[in-house]
Amino acid sequence: MYITSDRQPVYSNEDSAKEQKSSVESSWQQRTDHFPQDKVEEFKRYPNVTSDALRGRRERPRRVKMLMRDFIEDSLYNPQYGYFSKHATIFSPGAPFDFNNIRDEPEFNRLLGQRYVEFEDKLDEENPDDTRQLWHTPTELFRPFYGEAIARYMVANYKLSLFPYHDLVIYELGAGNGTLMLNILDYIRNADIEVYARTKFRVIEVSSSLAKLQQQNLMSTAASRGHADKVEIINKSIFDWDLYVPTPCFFLALEVFDNFAHDVIRYDPRTNEAMQGSVLIDAEGDFYEFYSRTLDPVASRFLRVRDAACEGRHYPSPMHTSKLWRAIRHNLPFAPNLTLPEYIPTRLMQFFSILSTKFPAHRLITSDFHKLPQATLGFNAPVVQTRYERRTVLVRTPLVYQGYFDILFPTDFGVMEDMYRAITGRLTRVMTHEDFFRRWAYVEDTQMRSGENAMLGWYKNASVMVTV
Questions:
Q1: Does residue 28 fall inside a structural domain?
Q2: Are 295 and 268 in contact (CB under 8 A)?
Q3: SS3 of 260, please?
């Protein structure tokens, strides 16, 4: 099988001997139809499947069709072959960086690169892997100071409005190595033993391998084992959550929005009608994009809620470009018959609905990227990338071999703040990553000798949103 990535097909190892095809079905679009004519019969004949229906499959599906959000969800989270389930490794730098004794940012970059090499060399001694997917988080880079700032914010707000009538209950969605959890609990134990006695920490982790790793790290030292009676690791998807939690709680969702599945919409430039994208996977495992004028209920609800919640707000969309420009562009010879794609965060909308219905007294703390460089073509489009021989490889389509590519989206915090408020009825505050940590971190802990501050200077393309 091959993966179409704009003009350069990428082959899986098992099929590297197959003849390279020159067509680019994932991004090509005919002038008069919405899909390649030679695949029409297959599109009619193949069954619709969902990511939920594919969870038990050990092999990547063929001869099926599914909505784009189901294709992305399956690619990232399938328990058998998904990116986060089987192929992703979170970088751990070992001992925390001594920022006060680092000269400047170039030296920090050099030390970080050195630690990366040492970390991966150690992994390769046990299990060499040219396709290992390795990435880092601010929690790991700025340990323990990043987690301490989050903890300081929660303790201050807990004592202001909830203590002593309620326990400090913390949920974390997607806890990675468990580092943030341990840093938060360490801080509370050291800073306020009275609050620590009332603290409970619950992790909701979709990946079985990461849930196991979190449990191992919790029990790895005497200090961390002291938190064991306060921690519960729940190995399930938040989208399968069925327990009603009426009591106040803090809900951490740090760098998870970017990997929530999105639907793709294109518009008919003449009628402004929205059309929803699906993916067909044929008998050879090749991917084809199809568009239908019938929207499924989830995508339809998203557009309705966004229209109502964001009335008067201007946000990037094919329909917010000049009507005159659209008319000129689409009347040019050989012009496409649909607009550029727009990726809509339908899974994020569903997450907000779960918070509203299952955690009505929650206080959300979330941080994610509001802008991503080198994204694929379209509005709110993702970055799609993999690693091969320790190098990052970018491709230009989300229709890629499932499990080996990170598919991450930017978050439009203006739109999401409006939609969160509309769905949950809660008020919010959005700020830059730097502003939040300048207020809640002890910034001298991450300041280098040059005066540069790594935790404030990095992640300029990230924002923080909190429930107030």
A1: yes
A2: no
A3: coil
Kindly give, in sequence order, each residue whose CB lies less than 8 Å from that of residue 344, ignoring residues fewer than 6 positions away: 262, 263, 264, 265, 299, 302, 303, 306, 380
Residue with tokens 């001694």: 125
For tokens 């294709």, the residue is 71
Residue 198 lies in a domain: no
3-class secondary-structure state, position 168: strand
What secondary structure does DSSP assign to 312-357, as a single string?
Answer: T-----GGGS-HHHHHHHHTSTT--SS---EEE-HHHHHHHHHHHH
Secondary structure of 205-247 as H, E, C letters: CCCHHHHHHHHHHHCCCHHHHCCHHHEEEECCCHHHCCCCCCC
DSSP string, 26-39: TT---SS-SS-GGG
Half-sphere exposure of 290 (CA within 13 A, CB side): 27
Which pLDDT tens digit goes with each residue over 280-300?
A: 999 999 999 999 999 999 999
Q: Show the domain range for 272.
A: 24-77+261-341
The Cα-based distances of 454 to 103, 217, 320 in angstroms read 11, 26, 37
Q: Which two three-digit tokens encode residue 253?
A: 């969702």
* φ, ψ for residue 345, nearest 5 deg: -80, 70
Structural domains in the chain (count): 1
Residue 457 has pLDDT above 70, yes or no: yes
DSSP 88-118: EEE---SSPP-GGG--SHHHHHHHHHHHHHH
Question: pTM (2 decimals)?
Answer: 0.89
Does residue 215 lie within any of the structural domains? no
pLDDT in tens, 407-435: 999 999 999 999 999 999 999 999 999 99
Give dist(CA 419, CA 399) in Å, integer.
28
pLDDT surpasses 60 at 32: no
Residues 6+ apart with CB under 8 A from 184: 147, 148, 150, 151, 154, 170, 201
Q: Is residue 125 part of a domain?
A: no
The CB density around residue 126, as the number of other CB atoms within 10 Å, is 7
